[in-house]
Amino acid sequence: MTTNDHASDTIEALFKEQRRFEPPAAFAARANAKAGIYEEAERDYLAFWSSWADKLEWSAPYRDVLEWKEPFAKWFVGGELNASVNALDRHVKAGRGSRIAFYFEGEPGDRREITYAALLADVCRFANGLRERGVKKGDRVAIYMPMIPELPVAMLACARVGAAHSVIFGGFSSDAIVDRVNDAECSTIITADQGWRRGKKVPLKDTVDVALAQTPGVERVIVAKRVGDAVEMKAGRDAWWDDVIAGQPETCEPEAMDSEDLLFLLYTSGTTAKPKGIMHTTAGYLTGVTATHDLVFDLKEDDIFWCTADIGWVTGHSYIVYGPLCNGAVSVLYEGTPDYPDKDRLWDIVERYKVTILYTAPTAIRTFMKWGVEYVQKHDLSSLRLLGSVGEPINPEAWMWYHEHIGGGRCPIVDTWWQTETGAIAIAPLPGITTTKPGSATKPFPGILADIVDEAGKSVPLGGGGYIVLRRPWPSMLRGIYGAPERYVETYWSKFEHMYLAGDGCNRDVEGDYWFMGRIDDVMNVSGHRISTTEVESALVDHPAVAEAAVVGKTDDTTGQAICCFVSLRGSNPGSPELGDELRKHVGDKLGKFTTPKYLTFTQELPKTRSGKIMRRLLRDIAEGRMLGDTTTLADSSVVAELQERAKAEAGKED
Ligand code: PRX
What we know:
Blueprint: H1 7-15, H2 25-30, H3 37-43, H4 45-53, E1 64-69, E2 72-77, E3 80-81, H5 83-96, E4 100-105, E5 111-115, H6 116-132, E6 140-144, H7 150-161, E7 164-167, H8 174-184, E8 188-192, E9 195-197, E10 200-202, H9 204-212, E11 220-224, E12 238-240, H10 241-245, E13 257-258, E14 262-268, E15 276-281, H11 282-296, E16 304-307, H12 314-326, E17 330-334, H13 345-353, E18 357-360, H14 362-371, H15 374-377, E19 386-390, H16 396-406, E20 413-416, E21 450-453, E22 465-470, E23 480-481, H17 485-493, E24 500-508, E25 514-519, E26 523-526, E27 529-532, H18 533-541, E28 546-556, E29 560-569, H19 577-591, E30 599-602, H20 616-624, H21 638-654
Parallel strand pairs: 4-17, 6-7, 6-8, 7-14, 8-11, 11-12, 16-17, 16-18, 18-19, 19-20, 29-30
Antiparallel strand pairs: 1-2, 3-13, 4-5, 9-10, 14-15, 15-23, 21-22, 22-24, 24-25, 26-27, 28-29
Helix pairs in contact: 3-4, 4-11, 5-6, 5-7, 5-12, 6-7, 8-9, 11-12, 14-16, 18-19
Adenosine-5'-monophosphate-propyl ester is lined by residues 268, 313-315, 390-393, 415-420, 441, 502-504, 516, 519, 525, 530.
C-alpha cells in the first residue's frame, strides 16, 4: 500500500479496540431495518433492489431489473421517471405539500422555512425559465453556488427539464471551473453574486467571470442574488435569477427520463491531474439513495435530518438533496461554517430545530474536540437520536467523543463508507441491528457484495487486510467517466477481474467488520476532500520558479491528511519563506483555497531512483518523520539527510 506503508501498526491498535455498542433496545424495537434483512437481500439481491425501486414514482414501468455487460450496468431497464417528481410532486400530491422540506439557516442568521409545495413551485418556475432560455433535455448545466435554497432548486429544475447538472463546489477556483465546464461541454452556468463564509463575502460571480474567458461553449449565465453587492453582468449572456423566474407559472411539465438517462455529473480527483466526471443516471441512483437514507438513518416521520456536508460534494447530493427529498424528510440546510459567529453554531442549530439525526465528518468532530466541550454544553442536544460519520476513517477517540459529548451516550453512530462513484452508502451499520465498534464502518449494506482481496485478487480470510472491492453491480454505481469510457474500465475494473476497485485499503476483523485504512493510490483525503497529489504537483510546476515537485499526504490530527510538498526550484534559487507562501497561494489560486498546502519544503533535488523515478514512498516516510524504509535504490543518498532535516523544521514550524 502506498499511503499506508506503516498501516499494520495502526491496524494492530484498531483490532485491539474491544469496545462495542449494541443497538439500544428501544431503538432496535422501532428500527426500519429488521433482523433478516441481510439474508433476504442475499437470497435475491435483484428483488431487494427492485423492492426499493418500486417505491419510486414511475411514468412508465421498467422491464428488467438489471442488464449487466461488465463493467457497464443498466438498472431498471426501459423505465421512465423524473427525479424532481420523485423528490417533490409525489409528496405534494399525497397531501404533504405543507410539510417542511428545508429549514434554511443562512450564515448571517437569516432563516426560511421551505415547504414541499413551495419548493415544487420554485423548481417549476425556474425550470420554465431554463426551458424558455433554451436549456433542454440532454444538456449539461454547471452550478457554482453557495449553500442557499436556490442550489437544490437549480439542481431539481435541471432534472425536471432533463438536463444533467454538474455542481462545482463553491470553494473551487476559476481554473477548476474552466476544466469542469469544458470537459462536460456545459452551455449554461448557474451561480450567485456572492456567498457568505465566516462573515466574509465570497466572490462567486467574479470567479465565474474569470473562468468565462476560457469557456467558449457557455452561452448563458444565471445569477442568484445572495449578498446584493453590484457584480458585472454581461448583456445577452448574464441574467438575474429573479428575471429568469419572473412571470413563470408554478407548474412545469417534467421530462419523462429513461432510467439510464444522465441525472448528474460530479467531478472527483483521481490519480492524474485531470478530474473525472463521474456519471450518475436517474433510476438506479434514486433507488440507492432512497434505500440507504431510509435504512441507515432509520428515517421516521418526525425526524429532523441534518447533513452538514456541502452540496458541492456527493454527500450533499445524496443526503441533502435526493435521498431526503425522495423520502419526504424534513431537513436542515445551513449555509455557513461551524465557527461563525462562534464555535457553537452547529449546536445552536441542533437545539433550534431539534435535529434528531446529525450526519457530519470526522475532521469536523476532531475540530470540535479541539475547541472543547464547553461549546457543546451551552446547548440542549437531547433531540438527537442518531449520529452519522462520513468522508474518511474515524479514529476511535473521535468516535467516542462524538458518542459521549454529542450523542449523550444514547445515540447509535453510523460510520458510513462510500464514494462519489458508489453514489450511495455502501458499507455502514444498520442502527437497529448492528453492533458498532469505534473506528469500524461494520458491514456492507444489504444487496452490496464487498470483499477484501490481496495483490493477486484472492479473497483475504477474515482477520486480514487488503484492497476493498465490490463484486457485483449495485443500482447507484457510477455508469462511467464522462467522455472517457476507457478510463472508467482502466481505473475501476482492470486491476482485478470481475471486481470494482474502490481504491481504499481495508481490514476485516474475524467478525467480518470492515475497518477502512485510507486510500491506496495517489489520492489524498484532506478534511474528507479528495485531492490528487498529481493535481497539486501540476499546480506547483505551473509556477515559473518551480522546476520539479512531489506531493504526498501527511497524517494530520484534525484534517486526517495534510498536503505536504517537496519542491525543487529552477536555477540556483535556494527558496525562501516568502516564496513558500507564494507557492502555497499559487496552488490555492489554481485549484481552490481548500487545497492550499500545509507543508512545503524546498530541496535541491528530489530523491530519485537511478532510472529517474521520484521515490514517493521515501518522501512519505520523510513527511511522517519515520525511519526510512529501503533506500538502496536511491541514486544520490546525500539528498535524503538534508531533506529530513528540512522537513522536520517545516513540520515543527507548522504545528
Ligand atoms: O477513502 C474513502 C473515503 O473517501 C473516499 C471517497 O471520497 P469522495 O468520493 O469524495 O466521497 C466522500 C463521501 C462519500 C473513499 O474512497 N471515505 C469516505 N467515507 C469513509 C471513507 N473512509 C473511511 N471511512 C468512511 N466512512
